[in-house]
Design a protein that fits this description.
CATH architecture of the largest domain: 2-Layer Sandwich
CATH topology of the largest domain: BirA Bifunctional Protein, domain 2
Strand content: 25-35%
Radius of gyration: 25 Å
CATH superfamily of the largest domain: Bira Bifunctional Protein, Domain 2
Structural class: alpha+beta
Helix content: 25-40%
Strand order of the largest sheet: 3-10-11-17-14-13-12
Number of domains: 2
Largest sheet: 7 strands, mixed
Bound molecules: adenosine-5'-triphosphate
Length: 453
């Protein structure tokens, strides 16, 4: 492979700066409300960012819902009643310890700073107090207590409160899961590290309901499956690890948690948590709502409350990890190029169609090819600047296949396909393009995955 990973020679701060600047320059991620000076750690996803984020979510959905017979989907509301959060324990427990620096008045998460203010270095801090991270609002025209509503801080509760609905309408029985992808909101005290920790973000969560005596087996099964998903999508094994939570660290609902961590430029950080939530949630909602949330097993004529195994991932955080893992600087023909070696299923564009000159008949041939291929692949069409510059641009956004239409194409009915990672080129017949592109994408995917495991 021609690519040499040079990122580890750069300082890790450099790498972060490069990724943030590439993300902005190429239209992946913009600071939200930038023309007003930005708004409190929120981000907007540009043309390439939205394409990439949609791919991350689609590949998760494909692996978790569409490829399985035992998981169904759900899309629950974001605006929710306090009753849910009272029953789930979030009103009481969804807090972070907060301290104020008495000198510079900055506010920090006590467990993030080790007793020293990162802003001014003072150790004169207030006692820690608990700060609830849910966003509160009012539903309807009157702002009184009976109108209080919350933006969900996780998608999980939507699955628990719909357990009985889904059980009846889907005719599933444990072991089975309900999956959801969507926005969550947390009033984080110290957001930061680009889109790693933001106040508005997207999650991909699944609640897998199992007979209690099968919980340990399914727990192990799911953290292995989820670890493998990141590998299958091109993250190198050396940048991933599993971390088992110590007893004291476990959330109030958990009988066991394993995190999948990624090696971010500042160190290991959580990508996803897999927890054995026991029957905590169903039991709590049953008590609070008065509605039975059990499974009646006809075979044994018995009722039980299922245990829940939950893989909970962040879509926006995962997208950032995919960008970091894919970033390479290597040398092609004596020149340094930046290349995002993204998995073709995650890359925002799969095929770039590049007519060598902005002239007929090349443009007509290229237009026809765009119409043919865009039925099956996400395509970009670029007819300006030199071919070298266009390749560099596509490398930098991670496009796996560049397709060039030249003057010979008109005579011989063939075009050139270029592999992003090896930069090797092959000549193929236009009539075979769909098959040829598909097989080149498959070979780029498998090289990438075998390279990284
Ligand atoms: P952390 O310890 O990083 O705050 P957490 O353990 O509270 O995360 P969970 O409640 O388990 O996170 O949420 C599941 C996933 O949702 C996390 O692994 C992460 O990928 C994502 N996530 C959580 N909070 C944020 C956030 N503020 N910004 C972006 N992603 C987030």
């Amino acid at each position: 492979m021609a690519s040499i990973r040079m990122v580890w020679i750069m300082t890790q701060d450099d790498l972060m700066d490069k990724i943030v600047s590439l993300a902005k320059r190429r239209g992946f991620v913009y600071q939200s409300a930038e023309i007003y000076g930005g708004f409190r750690s929120t981000y907007d996803y540009g043309p390439l960012g939205v394409a990439m984020l949609r791919n991350v979510k689609a590949r998760w959905w494909h692996a978790i819902v569409e490829r399985r017979r035992d998981v169904v989907g759900l899309d629950a509301s974001i605006l929710t009643t306090p009753k849910i959060w009272e029953a789930s324990g979030h009103l009481a427990n969804f807090t972070d310890p907060l301290v104020d620096c008495k000198k510079c008045k900055e506010r920090w998460r006590a467990d993030h700073i080790d007793g020293v203010c990162p802003n001014c270095g003072s150790t004169d801090l207030t006692e820690a107090r608990e700060f609830n991270m849910m966003f509160k609002t009012h539903a309807g025209p009157v702002e009184n207590d009976s109108a209080v509503a919350y933006l969900r801080p996780e998608t999980a509760q939507g699955m628990f409160i719909n357990f009985a609905n889904v059980l009846i309408t889907s005719r599933k029985k444990p072991p089975f899961g309900i999956a959801q992808v969507g926005k969550s909101f947390r009033n984080e005290i110290t957001p930061g590290n680009f889109v790693f920790r933001t106040r508005e973000f997207e999650q991909m969560e699944m609640e897998f309901f199992v007979p209690p005596d099968e919980a340990d087996t399914w727990f192990e099964y799911w953290y292995q499956q989820r670890f493998q998903w990141y590998l299958d999508n091109g993250i190198p094994a050396g940048m991933l690890r599993l971390r088992v939570h110590e007893k004291e660290e476990l959330s109030h609902y958990s009988a066991g948690t394993v995190d999948i961590e990624f090696l971010f430029p500042w160190g290991w950080g959580e990508l996803e948590g897999i927890a054995n939530r026991t029957d905590y949630d169903l039991t709590s909602h049953e008590k609070a709502s008065g509605v039975k949330l059990e499974y009646y097993d006809q075979a044994t004529n018995s009722r039980y409350t299922p245990y829940v195994i939950e893989p909970a991932a962040g879509a926006t955080r995962a997208m950032m990890a995919f960008l970091i893992a894919a970033y390479f600087e290597d040398e092609v023909a004596g020149e340094t190029r930046v290349v995002l070696r993204l998995h073709p299923g995650i890359a925002p564009v799969q095929v770039a169609i590049l007519p060598l000159a902005k002239k007929e008949p090349l443009i007509s041939v290229a237009n026809d090819i765009f119409d043919q291929l865009s039925e099956y692949f996400v395509c970009d069409f670029d007819e300006t600047q030199s071919i070298g510059k266009r390749y560099r641009r596509q490398d930098e956004i991670g496009t796996p296949v560049c397709l060039t239409v030249d003057y010979d194409s008109v005579q011989d009915g063939s075009v050139t396909l270029r592999d992003r990672d090896s930069t090797l080129q092959v000549r193929v017949k236009i009539e075979d393009l769909t098959t040829e592109v598909r097989s080149l994408l498959a070979s780029i995917s498998s090289n990438l995955v075998s390279d990284t495991v």
